[in-house]
Design goal:
The protein is mainly β and 699 residues long. The chain has 4 domains: 428 residues, no CATH class; 75 residues, Immunoglobulin-like, CATH 2.60.40.10; 74 residues, Immunoglobulins (Immunoglobulin-like); 87 residues, Immunoglobulin-like, CATH 2.60.40. It is built from 1 helix and 42 strands. Strands 1, 10, 11, 12, 14, 16, 17, 19 and 21 form a 9-stranded parallel sheet that branches. It has a 6-stranded antiparallel β-barrel with strand order 2-3-8-7-4-9. Strand 34 and strand 35 form a beta hairpin. The termini are far apart.
Length: 699
């Protein structure tokens, strides 16, 4: 038995090896709260169910900029912005609720002005669909998408169905009063306080506000029926949805209803833009008796990558939902727009049915009333099939028809509407595209990093600064400094003329930037201006100093002889001879230093002897002034008095040399030894100077 068993296993078909059976909801969804393109990560509501190495779909569900004027242009897409962007990425790291990707994000996402979700992609070898596969229904933030990859074969033994799992239809909204008493509101948008109409269906536009009611279609969402009792417009996707039906056969005193909800607008599908969208929700029928129907939900998104699909005649359904509720004495809602199916599959080897049908608009039975003709709902548009091959395989049976409009089904209805759609229109059929390339970046993300040294430096005036950068990032990096030359090199050498904050901006190939700064503090010229240059008389002292003071500097005076302190900015000197003093002031933090010198000129004063001996031996025979010094020029008068105050000698510039030989200048007699008083006036640089004192006469 064992031998035969081994042989039996050896001949098992290859496709059974590595086979996985799937059914139900196979994906994990989380809302993206913020997307950081340059740091290549997203902040999610919950990271539970995700792991490093997982493949994920990052997709922007909404966020287009719409015309919001209350005109026929309402709901026109002014800018798709990021709506419909999607790409396949690999999780590199999960830190709390921050998920960082291995490959570079190539597209932008906006979780503030639109809805973004992250969907985990299961990966298989061979997979068998043995039970119905669905998405989590779109809840306004997540869901609506089925996506999986298989390296081998996908075998259908059951269907994939995301019908009605796309954008939400407009909810029931009941208002009691008619707009402006008579109804027949012809505007395109209004708020609940206006009693003007019913709610619009959800689409790719930004969140509706006070414009949430009325017939204007917000992008691919259907417009709500206007007052009174007109039908809602059908949702859209690849093509336009159908308009709702009017209220007909309006009797005297009843509220008119000539302006039903408009069908949603067709969206852009192309290989150039490569965007995908949920089917738009249908608009709600106008109600004032709580007896109408809401708009139906749009179809979801299905994405499959595999080597081969064996369809076995099973379907992939991404239909817009039909409006199943029959409206009574109010109007009906519009059908949901069809979804989209993406097949990155080179081989379809067995028939596969793909349905992206628009939802049917709601019917009206007018509560079996024989006099009322309220508006049915418009049909949703067909969706899209997008394949990676050059043509759609003949084994794919595509049904992308638009949804039928609702009808008046009351057999007793007035002739004006009996068996009629009251003008409600079918949704336009969808279509197919070829040449699909799933956006799946291959460039590995390298965080943008930059370090510049030094980050701060103090330099002296005239010195250069070498700034060196180390950087890393994704792709080719470019550099931009903010110096005068706007240098574009990684490193920079400059000679600043003043303090400056240098900045280096590094940009990677995706346009992301990082900035680092270098704060250069240039110490102004150390103004060690010593002062003053001075002239002093021998024996005098003078203060010398610097005009630069403060604790940020050190000071050194040289030479330091006959100086109070050589390390103070201001000090006192009394040199005996003319001397040059030099001050060196040094900035403590930077080491910047400069010097300045001053000269103190020392001059002699008048020299008057205090004794003489007139014995005519050739030494000190006369009392005179041997040296007028450097500051006096001449003698004005020269007088001598004895101790009793009698004048004994006088010279008043009357010729000769002023000098006293110890005799009386009248009698010529030798005067006795003793002290005599002199009184001398000199003519000097600063005017007259008077000298008086005693001189000793010796013999």
């Amino acid at each position: 038995m064992k031998k035969y068993l081994v042989l039996f296993l050896g001949f098992l078909p290859v496709f059974l090896w590595g086979q996985t059976n799937i059914s139900g909801v196979i994906n994990t969804y989380t809302r993206v709260l913020a997307a950081d393109f340059c740091n290549n990560n997203v902040v999610v509501e919950s990271a539970i169910g995700y792991g490093e190495g997982d493949k994920v779909l990052l997709i922007q569900m909404s966020g287009a900029v719409l015309d919001q004027t209350n005109t026929a242009a309402y709901g026109t897409i002014d800018d798709y912005s990021v709506a419909g962007n999607y790409e396949i990425l690999t999780i590199e790291d999960i830190t709390f609720n921050i998920i960082t990707f291995t490959e570079t994000m190539e597209r932008r996402y906006d979780a503030v002005n639109g809805k973004v979700q992250l969907v985990r992609i299961p990966e298989y070898n061979n997979v068998v669909i043995n039970g119905e596969v669905n998405a989590a229904e779109w809840d306004g933030a997540t869901g609506g998408v089925v996506i999986f990859f298989a390296s081998g074969t996908v075998t259908f033994n059951e269907e994939i169905d995301v019908t009605g799992m796309g954008f939400k239809g407009g909810d029931d909204y009941n208002h009691i009063l008619c707009w402006d008493v008579t109804g027949n509101y012809d505007g395109y948008a209004c708020s609940e306080s206006d009693f003007c109409g019913s709610r619009k269906g959800e689409g790719i536009g930004r969140q509706l506000g006070t414009d949430s009611l009325g017939r204007g279609a917000p992008a691919n969402g259907g417009g709500g029926g206007n007052d009174s009792n007109t039908g809602g417009g059908g949702g859209a996707n690849f093509a336009a949805g159908g308009a709702g039906g009017q209220r007909l056969d309006v009797g005297p005193g009843e509220c008119g209803g000539s302006f039903p909800g408009l069908g949603g607008k067709a969206l852009d599908y192309s290989n150039t833009t490569n965007r995908i969208y949920l089917g738009g929700g249908g608009g709600s029928g106008d109600q004032n008796e709580n007896d109408g129907s809401r708009g139906a939900d749009g179809g979801g998104i299905v994405i499959i990558r595999a080597a081969e699909i064996i369809g076995n005649n099973f379907p992939i359904k991404a239909n817009g939902r039909n409006v199943f509720t029959v409206a009574g004495r109010d109007a009906a809602g519009g059908g949901g727009g069809g979804g989209v199916v993406l097949l990155d599959v080179p081989l379809i080897s067995s028939p596969l049915n793909v349905e992206v049908i628009g939802g049917k608009g709601g019917d009206v039975d007018n509560n079996l009333d024989a006099v009322t003709c309220n508006g049915p709902g418009g049909g949703g548009s067909g969706g899209a099939l997008w394949v990676s091959t050059a043509t759609v395989s003949p084994l794919i049976n595509l049904n992308a028809s638009g949804g039928a409009p609702g009808m008046t089904i009351n057999p007793t209805a007035p002739a004006a509407c009996n068996g009629s759609s009251n003008g409600a229109a079918a949704g336009s059929p969808g279509g197919s595209l070829t040449g699909l390339v799933l956006p799946e970046p291959t460039t590995i993300f390298i965080p943008l990093e930059l370090d510049v040294v030094p980050d701060e430096i103090i330099i002296c005036e005239g010195e250069s600064v070498d700034m060196t950068s180390t950087s890393d990032g994704t792709g080719v990096l470019t550099y931009q400094w903010n110096d005068a030359d706007m240098s574009t090199t990684p490193d920079l050498t400059v000679t600043p003329e003043a303090d400056f904050l240098y900045q280096l901006t590094v940009t990677d190939e995706r346009g992301c930037q990082i900035v680092q700064s270098v704060n250069v503090d240039m110490v102004d010229s150390v103004s060690a201006a010593a002062f003053p240059d001075a002239i002093i008389v021998l024996g005098e002292s003078v203060n010398i100093g610097s005009n630069l003071t403060g604790p940020d500097y050190t000071y050194l005076w040289e030479p330091d002889y006959n100086m109070a302190s050589p390390t103070l900015p201001v000090t006192q000197v009394n040199p005996f001879t003319t001397t040059e003093y030099c001050l060196t002031a040094t900035h403590i933090q930077s080491g910047c230093a400069t010097s300045s010198c001053i000269t103190i000129e020392v001059i002699s004063d008048v020299v008057i002897p205090n004794a003489f001996s007139p014995n005519f031996d050739g030494l000190n025979d006369y009392f005179t002034i041997p040296d007028l010094g450097d500051i006096c020029e001449s003698i004005n008068y020269f007088t001598i008095y004895d101790r009793w105050g009698k004048l004994v000698f006088e010279w008043a510039g009357d010729g000769g040399t002023p000098g006293w030989d110890g005799t009386h200048n009248v009698t010529g007699a030798d005067l006795p030894i003793g002290n005599y008083i002199y009184l001398i006036e000199l003519e000097c640089e600063n005017g007259k100077r008077l000298f008086s004192g005693e001189v000793l006469l010796l013999r």
